[in-house]
Structures are given as C-alpha cells and as structure tokens.
Write a structure and sequence with these properties.
Layout: H1 3-28, H2 43-52, E1 55-60, E2 75-80, H3 111-114, H4 119-123, E3 128-134, E4 150-161, E5 164-181, E6 184-186, E7 193-195, E8 209-215, H5 219-228, E9 230-235, H6 242-248, H7 251-256, H8 266-270, E10 293-297, E11 300-304
Antiparallel strand pairs: 1-2, 3-8, 4-5, 4-9, 5-6, 5-8, 6-7, 10-11
Length: 306
C-alpha cells in the first residue's frame, strides 16, 4: 500500500470523526423552550412562593410552666401549610395572658392552653351542668346517638309492693343536649365532635357513658331518676331547632317549673301520692283524784285526810 492511499484513508477517518462529533454536540444540546411553554422557577422564586402559601402560627419559644404569664420573649412565629384550629397568627393577642397548663418549647399555643377549663367545660352554658349516665345500645337509641343531638330522658319505674305491682313511665328531662357519647366529645355547642380516645386504637369500643347538659335546677331530678329505675334516651329531630330555642330563652327551664333548690323525693318525681296519714288519737286526760278518805254524812260527801 503506497503513501497516497494511506493519506486518503486517514483523511476519511478524520472526516468521519468530525461528523460524529458534530452529531454528538447536536444531540446533547438542550432544546430551545417553546413559545408559551411554562418556564421552570428558580429555587429562590420557589421559596418565596412557598412562603406566600403558608400561614403564621404562634409557638412557644421555650418551656412555659403552668400559670406563667406569657411575655414577648416566650413566643416565636412559624410558617405552616395548615394552621391548626384555635391557633393564633399574631403574638400580640397572647402577650400578657396566662397559660393554665405546662407548655413545652415548640408547642403551638391555642385557646386550649390559655383558657381555663377543659373541652367539656367550654361546651356547656353558664346555667348548665354536665352529668353522666350509664348507657348501652338500648338506652342510647341503638348506639347511634352522637354529641350535639338533643334527647328526651325517659324514666321507667316498676314498684312491687306485695301482690300489687305499679308500673309507670314518664319524661324526666325534655330536650337536653348530648355532650359526649362514649369516647366522642363535642368540642363546641354546635355539635362538632371528635374522638377523645387513642387515635391509633382502631378497635371499636361500645359506649358505656353519655354526658348530658342538664339545667342546674334539674340536676337533682336526673340523679334521682338514675337511681329510681331504668332510663331511655329518645332522640329529638334536628328540625325542631332546639339549639336555637335554647339560645333564645330557657324553654327547658319553663317546662320544668320554677327553679328550686329544695330536695325532691321519688314520690314527687313520679307523681306518686303519699299514703294517707292515720288520724291522730285524741288523748282524754283522766280527772284528777285528790288524796284522802271519802266520808258520807247523809246527803253530804266530804274527803278527809288520813
């Protein structure tokens, strides 16, 4: 093979290498963006857009003991995607308030820690009392009673006296609000409920107690009825709008009569007549007898000492 052939062959190899390099550069070059196509945002722009979508939430900057007064240095602001219910967006609304429970650092400050009382105490009105009764599926309307429902508390009494059997049933409390049923608790008066048990525990548990919002003057009635016989909860219709009626005035108090703190008996609760009292025995005093000896002198009678 002469030198001319080798030179031609080398030139062809160089030409092929150039073509392959050009094609490689052409394929590896990023395509030009199309007109109207969305452009990728820079990391800084993404950070700013994410901040605009977040909500400021006030948190505890350090551990706060119970009954501590909140100062400016105790608070910090965190930007969260979702603000928890009851949280505060500005620290000014918390400065000077008192925490009623110990709050660890990093906890979200909400109304639950700066207002006294638990969720049950916040649910009832000033003239109401929260009272618990034992329930099962029969007492609690088949187990479908929920916090926020209004129910009639009914009493069944069976009185056995010798061969006589007296059976009675009546409505003890009309239209009272259910605060809790089992592990469900109403966190507000409008019936919003949550599960008070362990959220990780998926095992259903049958409810054993129900807490009712009872007027203060009717608390003794419910306590006496719970001991006198069997109770039933009769659910009222939501169309009656009992919550609105209770806000307007004491419709339940009017149906129970005037408020009184006097003790109530079972006979008064179920309307059982009291047994007739035996007539009082009239006591006749015997005539006084004086001491001495009776002396008869004709038609005259006298008494002489002996």
């Amino acid at each position: 093979m002469n030198s001319k052939v080798l030179m031609v062959f080398a030139g062809l190899l160089l030409l092929c290498a150039g073509v392959v390099g050009y094609l490689g550069l052409k394929v590896g070059k990023p395509a030009a963006p199309l007109a109207g196509a969305p452009q990728e945002m820079a990391p800084a722009a993404l950070g700013e857009a994410d901040k605009l979508q977040r909500t400021p939430v006030v948190m505890a900057a350090r551990d706060l003991p119970a009954l501590a007064v909140i100062s400016k240095d105790d608070l910090s602001i965190e930007l969260l995607r979702t603000a928890p219910a009851g949280s505060y967006p500005k620290p000014e609304s918390l400065i000077g308030q008192r925490v009623w429970v110990a709050v660890p650092a990093g906890s979200i400050l909400s109304a639950a820690v700066v207002e006294p009382g638990g969720p049950l105490a916040r649910t009832i009105r000033p003239n109401e009392r929260a009272m618990a009764i034992a329930v099962d599926e029969v007492i609690g309307g088949g187990g479908f009673v929920l916090p926020g429902d209004y129910v009639d508390v009914m009493l069944f009494v069976q009185d056995q006296q010798g061969t006589e059997r007296n059976i009675s049933a009546q409505v003890v409390l009309p239209g009272v609000r259910v605060l809790t049923y089992g592990e469900q608790i109403a966190v507000s008066a409008d019936g919003q409920a949550r599960n008070a048990g362990d959220p990780k525990d998926k095992t259903p548990r049958p409810p054993r107690t129900a807490v009712l919002a009872v007027p203060a003057e009717a608390a003794a009635r419910l306590m006496l009825a719970a001991q006198a016989g069997s109770l039933r909860l009769a659910v009222r219709s939501k169309d009656e709008k009992l919550y609105e009626k209770a806000e307007e005035g004491g419709y339940l108090q009017a149906s129970l009569g005037p408020p009184s703190s006097q003790p109530i008996t079972l006979e008064q609760l179920i309307g059982k007549p009291r047994p007739n009292a035996a007539p009082a025995v009239r006591q006749v005093s015997a005539p006084a007898v004086s001491s001495g000896v009776v002396v008869y002198r004709g038609t005259e009678v006298s008494r002489e000492a002996h």
